[in-house]
Request: fold
Amino acid sequence: MSDSNNKLSSIWNLFKYTPRKNYEFSLPETMEEKAILDNPYENKDEFSELKPLEDTNKKVNLSLKQNLDFIKSSYNYLINSDIKIREFIINVRNKQYNAFIIFIDGMVETISINQFILQTLMLKNKSNTYTGNIEEVSYSPSKEKFKLQKKEKLSLSDYISQALIPQADVKEINIFSEIIDSVNSGGCALFVDTIDKAFVVDTKGFEKRSIAPPQNELVIRGPQEAFIENIRTNTSLIRRGVNNENLVIENINVGTVSKTKCAICYIKDIANDDLVAEVKYRINNLSIDYLLSSGHLEQLISDNPSSSLPQVLSTERPDTSITYLLEGRVVVLINGSPYALVMPANIFDFLTSIEDTNLNYKFANLLKFLRVLASFITLFLPGIYIAITTFHQELLPTELLFSITSARSGVPFPIIVEIFLMEISFELIREAGLRVPASIGSTIGIIGAIVLGEASVSANLVSPILIIIVAVTGISSFAIPNFSLSFHFRITRFIYTILGATSGFLGISLGIFVYIGLLCSLKSFGVSYLTPYVPLTKIVNTGYFSNPIWKREKRTDTLNTKRLHKQEHISMKWRQGGNIDEQN
Amino acid sequence: MKKTFLYLIIAFLIILYSLLIIENGTSYRSLDNYAYCMALGFDKGENSKFKISFQIPINSSGGSSSGSSEQSTSSIVNSVECETIDSGINLMNAYISQSINLSHCKAIVISEELANEGIADIIYTLFNKVEISSQALVLISRVDANELLNKSVSSLETASARYFDTSINSAYTTGYVDKITLSNFFSALNDNFCQPLASLASVNSKNSQTTTNSRC
Amino acid sequence: MNKIRIGAIEAVCIICIITLSNILLAGPQIILRSTGSSALLNTFFISLLAFIVFYIIYLLFKNFKNSDILDISSFLAGNWLKVLLGISIILFLLLYASTNYRDMAENLKIIYFQNINITYILLLIIIPVAIVNCFGFNTVIKCNLIILPLILLTILIIFILGMPKFVLQNIFPILGNGIKSTFLTGSQNISVFGGLIYLFLIMPLLKRKDDFKKVSFTSLAVSSIALTLSTACLLFILPVSIITKESIPFYIAIKQISLGNFIERVDILFLFIWLLTIFSNLSILISFILLIFKKITNIEDTKPLILTFCSILLGIALIYKNENQLTLAKVTIYKNIFLILVLGVNISILVLANIKKKIKDKNKTIAEVN
Reply:
């Protein structure tokens, strides 16, 4: 009885309407109107919680042996070949204590361990045999004079960390999980008997790639540096470009097993606080085991991951990231991935390249126009060709029509089958080209062009006009700067071809209307995807097409930055006779 | 369970829609199944009201070479006897393998004999057809329209599709002929402040053409 | 669910879309049938009348800053009037739009898809409308914002490209079918400005309430300019006697346009714009119907009802058996219902509500003084 009841209720549930819970975030209109963010997950039982692998709160013990046993069991010391533990005796204030250090071979620079930890602590020298008092010199700002005073003796742990280890980055930590995190990223932990803290010393020395020119985003006049996999080098590249103390780089660990370091970069005086809070909120609330690349993170924090349009910009150039940081956006770096994520992004960001700011605005506008043309050709050309030749032959000029019919006279397939044949073989060539070894890479291009193109025309499999159309479409898809967007266009192009083949221009307009609806409904971190044209904000000088350099006065209105103007009204003061007040 | 049901429905609809594509590609409407008539000729029929002639180009099959972009130089002229224009087109469709398409018709040639009886209903019928282009020339011919269409071969260019387009180009430089299109003729026919005009064409050894007024 | 707030330009686009959709389909034809060659005079006249009507509506709405016609009717006489008015507006919108919808489908069938059943064409038009409405009201408004400038541009291009074919003598006789048909009965042609309906409903959706004046007069200006241009285009290209007899005169007028020897048929390029117009028109319509329904019945989520109203629209569009019934409905029946409902009923409700508010305020001040 209950079984049949369950079945009935399950059938009933097929037709019942349950509203979808939508998570919506929008940047507020002004700084006063703060949007209240609803908690999207009201019922926590809907997903299972991932527990971390180890006990997160175990603290360092006073006994060295217990600490040693715990570390050895945590790291599986007996079977791990690259974990090194060195036990030794240290001298502090003429007394000897047992101690050990733990580090991972290959991740550390052994010279600094030898010189700055082992040598200074093991061997007796004047610093670690001094048992006298401390006399401290200080300056008091209220009385405006120097004073010399005797201080009590420091505790043992303070004395070791502040006076005996001449290393730049030393921390005293007493929670095992944090100590293990630091050792995993290349640090060295020092445990001393009778002290319930460990000293974690930064001794990173692993091999990493050197900074190389970018491989996928090439420009002619810009800098030729690209991000590498190591997060510290990437942040240093960004720091050097921004050159301002207000640049904040916060660290978050994502993933319960891999604990990948992610750095969230923003400029405190410019970026909107709500935007930064939203980015941090999303990255902090991910329950995943591991995170390995920026593409992985991009899909996890996008507003609409089911849409094939990219909503977060990924770039491998530091100058792009710096430009966007100074405009008020947030950049996220992930350790192990040479791509940075910039958010929020709108569709026009995917159609611009950093070259546009380096060049004269006229050249930049020409290039931008070409890119828009390329995107239209990529999307619509095969669909329009098949719609015209099937339904609307009267649009073609008569001579073109006769040349198409005479070219198609020997071909056995209908037009739609020809198109699919050529498109699929083009995609196969493209995919094969990615995996071909570099030595025969160029021959594949020649084979693809000659064999598939020429020979199939001679064999009467396809008409020559179709080859031109497919080739032009393919070339235009390479003209789009961003890889994700051109991928999206490749998929959508098939849909338009099918629509054009079945219902002509009616089908294509149907597709265009639904596509416009899709684009308008997308939001990326609270900013509409078609900003600044829809909704109509002040486009003055911040639209898609570049303005002359003297007119780029304001930052984008929709980002609601704290600092709206980036140039004065007259930025080239030398034209007006220079600054009258030359003391500034 | 609900999601899989939904996906099944969507997959079924997609398959159904895709079947339409393949069916549509081989349908009668595709490019290969049309014969694009380049000129229409109207004569007085012997046993019926009209004798309609269609000038249809023959495409040279350039499949053996690497795709030819040359125009066909030859065309055929077929005629049928009929009472109305639509029945004539139907008869013609029955004769030839491809169906007639009037969207690239460049000239409408009416013989003088037929024109003397009035051509208003021919013009109205043609103008009401959706597919006919309103830039088609209206010519009245001294000889039979059939003969005029047969002899319309240009000696200066190879593409017969452009013959009627370029033959009337002298209208821009001389006063002997005027370029009267179907839309001009039609609007002149209906306006009550002017009379319609058409060009008079004929065949002789030198292929000359003259204009004169003509009653409609 | 976020509160809907639309800016001034988006509101202008909403109000203009119905007028422009009428224009591209059959608006000038309605004017020309009744007035003959004095169509331009009639256009100026009804624009003037519409200006007066818009001004009256603006004045009447001054006292009610945050409510639309439904709230005002509930203020006037309670809930039953609100429900009655809401249902009648919904019915009228459905019927009015179904003529445009069926007309567009018939045109497509005549021109391009001769052998296809009308039901499939109707389905192909309503499906993207339903899909885009599922994305939300804000999306529909943004789509409209993108499409409307394209329509205006198209009308301008048609006018400019058609200029070589203009026969200016078509304007004679200047008074057409007579003074009575131009000015007296011709004033009924104000029903071409279908955007009046949305003007009553748009007030609570605006971001800044002071925009109402700007919105109403801008939309009137845009609509009347577009109407004038297209009427002029139609009048000058084709003879008047033909326009009254043909079924799609605007299409035939565009067919006369050609760009040199290269492109002979420009009308196919305008097919995109016509289709986008009808899609946009219908999606705005369905969203407003859902808004009104939500106001009447107080349900929380109107998304499941999209399919319902789309099916109703499809069903009504299939009622007409042929083109003649459609033309009869469009030219005679709905024109009169529009005048009665929109101009008569709504304005009288506004006037009565204003009177009631004045009386209430007077009583309040008397009570305060006492």
User: Anything to note?
Assistant: The two ends of chain B are 74 Å apart (CA to CA). Chain B touches chain A at residues 1-2, 5, 17-18, 20-22, 24-26, 29-32, 34, 36, 38, 57, 59-64, 66-72, 101, 103-104, 106, 131, 133, 159, 161-162 (CB under 8 Å).
